[in-house]
Amino acid sequence: MRLSEFWRLMDDELGAAYARSVASTQVIGALDGRTPDQALEAGTPPREVWAAVCEAMDVPPERRLGRDEPARRR
Questions:
Q1: Model confidence, pTM
Q2: Dmax over Cα atoms in the chain, in whole Å?
Q3: Separation CA 37–CA 41 (nearest Å)
C-alpha cells in the first residue's frame, strides 16, 4: 500500500479533517503507543498503520478495503 492509498482510505472512512486529526492525535497501542503520523514517520508500512487504525476505530471489516466504486465506462 502506498502512502497515497493510506490517506485515501483514511479520508473515505473518517472524512478528510477528522482523518488528519486522528492521524496526529490518536495514540494507538498496536503502533507501539504512537500516533499514526508518528508510526509512518518512523517507517511503519502504511498497510500496518491502516490496520491498526481500523482496529482502534472499530472500522467494520467490509469497509477496510475502501469504498466500492462503480466501474467506469470506456
A1: 0.86
A2: 46
A3: 6
